[in-house]
Amino acid sequence: xxxxxxxxxxxxxxxxxxxxxxxxxxxxxxxxxxxxxxxxxxxxxxxxxxxxxxxxxxxxxxxxxxxxxxxxxxxxxxxxxxxxxxxxxxxxxxxxxxxxxxxxxxxxxxxxxxxxxxxxxxxxxxxxxxxxxxxxxxxxxxxxxxxxxxxxxxxxxxxxxxxxxxxxxxxxxxxxxxxxxxxxxxxxxxxxxxxxxxxxxxxxxxxxxxxxxxxxxxxxxxxxxxxxx
Length: 229
Hints:
Blueprint lengths: L1 H13 L11 E2 L2 E2 L4 H20 L11 H22 L7 H27 L12 H8 L1 H16 L2 H22 L16 H29 L1
């Protein structure tokens, strides 16, 4: 059973990440399906989405984020790019902590984009007020970074081998939400969500699309390895 568990997790991340053990978290003897930097990205997305859906629970917003978001997103993108390319090119040796930190920062920016597109495509009673337009909302957004670090370094060790499964679920959930945006382009489901139960049908159709994307990425990785090696 444990072998099946680890094989499924490996497949989930195979087409998305290099999965190098020395650059990945291992809790309870089970390696995460993706590396530290990618783990940070998915955790950052999850934390940000939870914060935004809670923050704007009264009226979901789909407006363009305010200026602080673009400044923060640009810094996060530069930080992750600098750390990634700098280490790969041998300019300096980075650590898993820096990898996961820059990953969470970048993921938190991606989370805002995914949230805005989701609300704009699916929500019936959406508002086009700006996202993160107050110091309070920006502080909540920035809070996704320490919350993500706490989850990875404090909660995951307590979960042991289940921690890798939680990260695997975050991978599937992220692609599920991205696929939900695709479903939202269909006239029948566009701007159709008024209550939580209204998401049942769109989510049902989005799930196989998400699985197909993940499997396609894995297939392309297999194909590339065959061609290059």
